[in-house]
TrEMBL record:
<dbReference type="InterPro" id="IPR008974">
    <property type="entry name" value="TRAF-like"/>
</dbReference>
<dbReference type="InterPro" id="IPR002083">
    <property type="entry name" value="MATH/TRAF_dom"/>
</dbReference>
<protein>
    <recommendedName>
        <fullName>MATH domain-containing protein</fullName>
    </recommendedName>
</protein>
<feature type="domain" description="MATH">
    <location>
        <begin position="208"/>
        <end position="338"/>
    </location>
</feature>
<dbReference type="Pfam" id="PF22486">
    <property type="entry name" value="MATH_2"/>
</dbReference>
<feature type="domain" description="MATH">
    <location>
        <begin position="58"/>
        <end position="191"/>
    </location>
</feature>
C-alpha cells in the first residue's frame, strides 16, 4: 500500500513538472509573437550599427509625417527638416522616403544628419558626435533605435552621416507592424555632441619641501592657547604650523600639541571635492640629533579638514626637563619635512 502511494506521488510530481515546463514554453511563445511584428524586416545589429527597441522617445528632434503616402506621391527624393540645435551647433535631418539608392537604401527608408551652414564655422572645424535615429511604433509605445556604435566626426570633408537602410519599406507600410498607422509615422534623432576634454584635472605629486620654525622665548608663548608660525609655501599651497604650548584636547596640560595646517586662504580656495595629500615628518629638535622626536603624518587635507596633527606629540615634562636638551636658551626648534605632497590642476 505504501509503495502504491509513493508511486502515485511521484507520478503527480512529474506531471506538475511537465505542466510547469509547458506553461513556460507557452509564455515564451507569446513574448516572441509580440516581438516579431516589431522586429520583422529590421536588419540585425552589425559590428558598427546597433538596432534595438526602447520605451523613451528621442530627446533631440522628431519629424512627424501626417501622410507618408502623400509625401511619396510628390516625387521628392528627399525631405529636409527645419534647423534644430544640439550641443551648441545647428543641425538638419534629411529623409529619403523611398530610400537612398546611392547608399544601398533601395526599398528602405534612409535618414541622415548634417550640420547646418558649415560655412560659418571656423577653419579646420570638427564636431564629434554620438548619433541615434528613431522610428516610432505607436501602438506598442516603443521606438526602433538605430545608432552608430562609434563616434562620428563631422568636418569639411564629411558634412553628413546617416543610415541608408533605416527600416524596410515593406515593414513600414504593413500597419500590423505598428510603424505606419493611418498613413502617419514619426522619425527622430538624438545628437550628443562630444567636446574633447572640456573639463579636466591633473593630479601631481611632489616629493620634497622643508620648513624650520625656531620658537624664541618659548616660556612667554605658554601664556597663549595656540601659537602660529609664519605662512610658507610648498608645492603651490600655503601652510602654517600651529602649536599648543600647554597641550590641546587629550593632550591638555600633559603634552605638547602640534598641527600642520593649510592656510585659511588655501583651504578656502580648494574646490568642493579637492584634496591635498601630505606625507610629512614633524620633528622637535634636540641638541643631540639622535634624540630628536619625530612623528609621521600621512593624510588627505580638504576644505572640511584643513588641520591635522598630534594632540600628544611629546610630554611637557620631557620638553621642560633641562637635562633632555629640547629647550635651549628658551628656544624650541620645529622642523617639517615633506616627503610627498599633492597638487591638483584644473582645466580650463
Amino acid at each position: 500500500m505504501r509503495m502504491m502511494l509513493l508511486e502515485e506521488y511521484d507520478m503527480k510530481k512529474k506531471k506538475n513538472k511537465y505542466s510547469t515546463t509547458l506553461l513556460l514554453c507557452l509564455l515564451s511563445c507569446v513574448v516572441l509573437v509580440q516581438l516579431i511584428p516589431l522586429l520583422n524586416g529590421i536588419s540585425n545589429s552589425s559590428d558598427s550599427i546597433y538596432r534595438g527597441l526602447r520605451n523613451d522617445p528621442p530627446s533631440t528632434y522628431t519629424l512627424d509625417l501626417d501622410s507618408y503616402s502623400k509625401l511619396v506621391s510628390t516625387g521628392a527624393e528627399t525631405y529636409e527638416s527645419d534647423v534644430f540645435q544640439s550641443g551648441g551647433y545647428n543641425w538638419t535631418l534629411t529623409l529619403y522616403p523611398s530610400g537612398n539608392t546611392r547608399d544601398g537604401g533601395a526599398d528602405h527608408i534612409s535618414l541622415y544628419l548634417k550640420p547646418y551652414n558649415t560655412e560659418s564655422l571656423p577653419q579646420g572645424w570638427e564636431i564629434l558626435t554620438k548619433i541615434s535615429f528613431f522610428v516610432q511604433n505607436k501602438p506598442r509605445n516603443k521606438y526602433l533605435v538605430v545608432e552608430e556604435k562609434e563616434v562620428q566626426r563631422f568636418n569639411a570633408a564629411k558634412t553628413e552621416w546617416g543610415i541608408g537602410k533605416l527600416i524596410q519599406l515593406s515593414t513600414l507600410s504593413n500597419e500590423k507592424n505598428g510603424y505606419l498607422v493611418g498613413d502617419k509615422c514619426q522619425f527622430g534623432a538624438e545628437v550628443l555632441v562630444l567636446k574633447p576634454n572640456p573639463n579636466s584635472e591633473q593630479l601631481t605629486f611632489f616629493d620634497k619641501g622643508n620648513y624650520t620654525w625656531r620658537m624664541l622665548h618659548f616660556s612667554r608663548l605658554e601664556e597663549s592657547k595656540f601659537v602660529y608660525s609664519d605662512e610658507f609655501a610648498v608645492a603651490g599651497s600655503n601652510w602654517k604650523v600651529r602649536v599648543a604650548p600647554k597641550g590641546d584636547g587629550d593632550g591638555w596640560r600633559n603634552y605638547l600639541s602640534i598641527y600642520l595646517e593649510l592656510s585659511e586662504t588655501t583651504a578656502q580656495s580648494l574646490r568642493v571635492n579637492e584634496k591635498v595629500y601630505v606625507r610629512a615628518s614633524i620633528v622637535v629638535r634636540n641638541t643631540n640629533p639622535s634624540k630628536n622626536i619625530q612623528r609621521q603624518l600621512g593624510k588627505w587635507y580638504s576644505r572640511e579638514v584643513p588641520s591635522l596633527g598630534f594632540q600628544q606629540f611629546m610630554s611637557l615634562a620631557e620638553l621642560h626637563s633641562p637635562s633632555k636638551g629640547y629647550l635651549v636658551g628658551d628656544r624650541l626648534t620645529l622642523e617639517i619635512h615633506f616627503h610627498l605632497i599633492s597638487k591638483t590642476h584644473y582645466f580650463p
